[in-house]
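Why do we care about 3D structure at all? Because function follows from shape, and shape follows, mostly, from sequence. That is the central idea of this module. The next example makes it concrete: a single protein chain, its amino acid sequence, and then its structure expressed as tokens.
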Amino acid sequence: MDIRSWTYLIVGLTFAVYIGIAVWSRVRTTAGFYVAGRGVPPLINGMATGADWMSAASFISMAGLISFLGYDGTIYLMGWTGGYVLLALLLAPYLRKYGRFTVPEFVGDRYYSQAARVVAVFCAIFISFTYVAGQMRGVGIVFSRFLDVHIDTGVYLGMTLVFVYAVLGGMRGITYTQVAQYVVLIVAYLIPAVAISLKMTGNPIPQLGFGSTISEGAHAGVYLLQAIDEIHRELGLPEYTGTFVAGKKSMVDILAITLALMVGTAGLPHVLIRFYTVPTARAARWSALWALFFIGLLYTTAPAVATFARVNMIQTLHGVEYADAPAWFKNWETTGLIEFHDRDGDGVMRYSGDPEQNELRVDRDIIVLANPEIARLPAWVVALVAAGALAAALSTAAGLLLVISASVSHDLFKSIFTPDMSEGQELTLARVSAGAAVLVAGYFGVNPPDYVAAVVAFAFGLAAASFFPVLVLGVFSKRVTKEGAISGMLAGIGFTAAYILWFKMLGLGDASDWWFGISPEGIGSIGMLINFAVTLTVSRFTPPPPPEVQRMVEEIRLPSEPHREVAGDVRGDAPA
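And the structure:
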């Protein structure tokens, strides 16, 4: 069978599994819809969290970033994995011990203010829609290439699928669907990585092949990283392994992006809400550990995948007659994501670091998807990668849409506007909210502000600048007040959003105008510092929190006795 037939078969089978799980796990209570009844085992939750976390940015775009940026691209690896350490140590067990359903609910109760809750809802929805735009765009890219439809049509197809299992099954359905999606995405990522590593270096373990010598071709006997550096120098590109050199990011910007990604990880509402689904605070810690393990399987493979693809791409395109271009190039050219502009009219394709001489434009988001075709792997492997990419994008999109749904139905309507609504009415509103969120997410998928990983990086910056400071201070400081928290969240997210809007959406400046040389992807680190400063300063000049709030802060930090810990919250709610 050809690639398209294999894609229809494999993608169709995986979609049938996802929908089947959604039907099997459909819920009839708000506890089931929001937090899966708080009965998810740590191992299962860790796997679901891994799928929730490894979005289109991780599967599709991260290796593409490393492939084009070299060393600079690894900041995404460091930031996204390091954030889980912060999450496990500073937030996950305490938020689970607190209980309840959502992050805005914790903010509203801890800061004894409905206004704080509303601000948190706004931040959660803003962050989630920014993040989900990248996921839906990733879905569109996959469909456009492998099912031969327009990118926008691919986005609409993805919207339909997410609508079915997110609206029907809620968090319970999403959790078990994400477990299946993790299996699909990790198998899809590792199989081609192992095959290409074995083919290029003779080593079947990609992490080791990454540091091995090339076994065949013009660079046979040369270490892979040494070969890619030589290729880059010949083409006038910055060295692949070069750090802080001309044409690459500065040390300050790399530090800022890494920090923003780390603290953003610990502040993302769709990740935090996963730790409400386990039975106990201890289980929340184990969930974070398992999640880091499952994520590490892909993240330690990504640099190898990026480098293999980079070498193969350049060797199969540079200096080749356009008429003799490989089949993979022709296939992807129809999507508009790779283009040849014959500047000198000789029909020979040239890839160069000089913009005046470069004749190839390659979208970095196609690297992982095109990698099996570039390496001439079987058609079924190509189709499997397509299914993995869809699994990665859809799993994260579902988690984000649930956050938006819960923010609207539970944190706004149930908690503020109509507190007397019944559980059935709230569940209906949650499903309607999820459906509306799917439509808005689809719009942003059709009209994204940037490439997938950049859009996701913006979401991390917004989370770092809004949620991380008030959550950490809410757990570890009894003195922080509602006025401080509200002011800090608004100042942090306002500054960060304005900076991103100014440079990325409106295009009113370039890199020379960045504050302290920090790019929009890293500005969330400054927004976080602003949030901390404003929150602590305002809290110092406002009355301290009520005694009962201070007692709550003390209680959620106290170790729970194993025989007394329940799946409720610290204020005596019954177990879910």
